[in-house]
Amino acid sequence: MSEFDYDLLVIGSGPGGYVAAIRAAQHGLKTACAESRETLGGTCLNVGCIPSKAMLHASEIFEQAHEGAFEKFGVKLTGAKLDLKQMLAEKEKAVGELTGGIEFLFKKNKVTWLKGHASFEDAHTVKIGDETVTAKHIVIATGSSVTPLPGVEIDNAKGVIVDSTGGLALKAVPKTMVVIGGGVIGLELGSVWRRLGAEVIVVEFLDQILPGMDGEVRKEAAKLFKKQGFDIRTGTKVTGATVKGKQATLTLEPAKGGDEETLAADCVLVSIGRKPNTEGLGLDTIGLETNERGQIEIDDQFRTKIDGVRAIGDVVPGLMLAHKAEDEGLAVADWLAGHAGIVNHAVIPSVVYTMPEIAAVGLTEEEARDKGHEVRIGKFPMMANSRAKTNRDTDGFVKIVADAESDRVLGVHIVASLAGTMIAQAAQAMEFGATSEDIAYTCHAHPTHNEAVKEAAMAVTGKPIHI
Ligand code: FAD
Ligand code: NAI
Fold first, then answer.
1. Ligand 2 mean position to 202 CA, how many Å?
2. Which listed CATH number (3.30.390.30, 3.40.718.10, 3.40.190.10, 3.40.50.2000) goes with 350-460?
3. Is the CB of 192 under 6 A from ligand 1?
4. CB of 44 closer than 6 A to ligand 1?
């Protein structure tokens, strides 16, 4: 008999935690997963990836129906109306189905769900609600929550100044919405409410939106979002907010200093980034410190400096993405079961699910040059892709950054309606160490948007066919 209640206790049931727990159980470890939320699935399934994509999908259908986008294809629609209550209900239904799905998978794989907030008593003992359990190994997968902005108090219940959770559940379409932060959440949720009728103003501290993306992509994205009606104010910071009744008034200042101005809105979305969840976890009790960004530092086997305690997902350094957390969940469980668990952090795709979508994997052109690569660039506009032309969705391009000497693909950047799907082939090619020539000589089905990836690869050597 083991001296511990469990071989593994995972704290947090987001995509990192639930995947780690299921894989560990598949490996034969006696596994439990503690979750303080009422349902499993973490930020991603409850208030993140899934509900935001549900609202993006629904609002896109509405915009197309409402703006007569179908008529040129010979489909006449009249009287399209918004039923926001139904739209929100359908989103909740999808969330319920998916979080319930994780509960089913826990039962199927014999993972014990421990309900309540977990905090360490020592490195092998954790209190969850009124219960205390011991485990040989503990994986911290507590995720992240919204970074607050001093002077701008979030109150999701009131619905005037909200974070992404409130922004996914507004009961009425705001007339004016100010989005603080021109990053992923701001542009995705800004798109939702703009499509449903709000005037959306994005206030971004930096000179350009979408930090971390390739320079040309950032420029193209700003151009397209402005064309869609977004008012984008870069180089501007919000210094405070007051709320009177159902109206907020923000004070803004140029980021580099200057005259203050005010801006009124009936909804303000705070989306300036996310911070790791470590509060109330009892890290002090076990002597585990966080770094200056509040993250738990780990080695390449996800081990913290405390024996028996590992960490994965948004709570550790790296991209804050569900699939990165999932892959770390698989890998940590593999290590715990005596196998090698590998995550190639250099090849993690990221996607912004706006229209068009924006997707990237690997190095931007700027990063590649900064790292000392001489690069060759291949670019192909979606305007010249036959399927995109036929479907009348020609915004965007594919850009491939290749090493000039070896031709190895260093990064792929896509702005296109299906960029999120198209990026998968680029990630796989890079994982296999592909050159641009490898992509160019791979037969791509016709007519597909993905042919633009092949053409961009051919453009690396200056020989695309269709431009
Ligand atoms: P989380 O999913 O945050 O899960 C952590 C869980 O731990 C939570 O359920 C929390 O309640 C629980 N917990 C925390 N502390 C304790 C404790 N002490 N005791 C017990 N339980 C605890 N990523 C994508 O890749 N694609 C997307 O489209 C996407 N869309 C997003 C949209 C929004 C609006 C947001 C906010 C995020 C989005 N993300 C997206 C990011 C994605 O949600 C996160 O990267 C991902 O959820 C991180 O997974 P995780 O397992 O590390 O943590
Ligand atoms: P973000 O980091 O993507 O963007 C935050 C933006 O706010 C940046 O552009 C930043 O310069 C700006 N900013 C910071 N302080 C500011 C201030 N005081 N005033 C004005 N602007 C300010 O963060 P966001 O959008 O909150 O999303 C958090 C994370 O959640 C993302 O980084 C991503 O990891 C994850 N996410 C992923 C999604 C996806 O994969 N599709 C969707 C939504 C979230």
1. 12
2. 3.30.390.30
3. no
4. yes
